[in-house]
Amino acid sequence: MNLDNFKSIYFIGIGGIGMSALAHYFVNQGAKVSGYDRSKTELTIELEKVGVEISYDENIDSLKDLQNIQLVIFTPAIDSKNIYFEYFKKSQVPLLKRSQILGEITKPLDTIAVAGTHGKTTTSSIIAHILTSDNKDGLCFIGGITSNYKSNFLIGKGNFSVVEADEYDRSFMNLFPDTIVLTSMDADHLDIYENKDFLVEAFKDFTNLLSDKKKLIVEENISHFFKENLSYGFKKDNDLQIINVQIKEGLYLFDIVFNNQTYQNFVFKMPGSYNLLNAAGSILACLINGITVDSIKNGLQSYSGVKRRFDVQLSLPKLIYIDDYAHHPKEIDSLLSAVKSFYPQKFVVGVFQPHLFSRTRDFMDYFAESLSGFDQIFLLPIYPAREAPIEGIDSSVLIQKIKNNNKRIINSVSELFNFINRDLDMVLLTIGAGDIDQWPKQIKKIALNA
What is the total count of domains within the chain? Predict the structure, then answer.
């Protein structure tokens, strides 16, 4: 398929983080881009700034304006009864998934694909930043807004592409990877996969797309699932080992061992051992693709993170405020561990918005255990995203299972500030993948005007 032939492209669900990156790509290529999403967000506003026309209503009268569309790209999260989806399904216009298009775009390039239930966005953005800093980047499609570039899409003149390989509905099988970094395989998306075994099999199928297994890079705790791979982590038998980790002035300092040689003085600002693992996977991916150690060090040290990944919004004498995308129990555990290691004396307050009824049901007890570790925990109602409610599954059920008496369900930022003790030396975290991402502005406004 020659995508250059399509000059008028329509996106159904254009406001998604992956979809908006693709939309920016086609705008960059000179195509006329338009689309639908159900709500205006920072991502859609950025697209409108570059000339993308976006509809926020399912308006049947607008269908007459779509006669000249040559290609339609949709997200798997879209409701199958969406009027635009139904309309184009019946038309002769090519209707393709986001991942199919991503595969076609990156197929000619040397593609580094980052897969895993956690860590994809941070790892892919680190790799993209190292390549960009070394003028080796080609196309980078990131599942978050990078702090260095304020964007989820990067374009350069190099021959590499960096993509996130999404396991949801086996989307990653549409990619053409030359290098794979596999960060994790914890149970998730059980609405798609019956259990973890099916999920693991899907990841194995994805790794089989690699012609050169010497370019399969796997985190140390899951490397045993694969016969051939390069492993990374803290253990001595890894192909790349992290050693001599220190925390100084809010930064990680560490060394690595690779090919029986020690390389010293890596500097990295993102807290948490899980982020050190993300850095290690990124370093290994760059090393085996010919990037020099000095270039990797420089890129890693200047890396500033991703929006909503341990995103420090405020740093006041008595309040550290962090916003994070964590929406799985394992991610919450890692986040809380990082907070406690960097701020060991502070009172930790969590505000969590569960994401999806099915995920809350499938991991109810695990969520309760993870959330019990906070000094004070607030829950918002479940964010449904693509789902209808499930009877008997809501935040009131989850909060009863949390083994912490300092807990409450809230619905607004003003409620939150009514129930926290502002005299405490605290870390406040907003956590979740839903519209809790709209809370930081309000929280900062109240905190700074107190």
Answer: 3
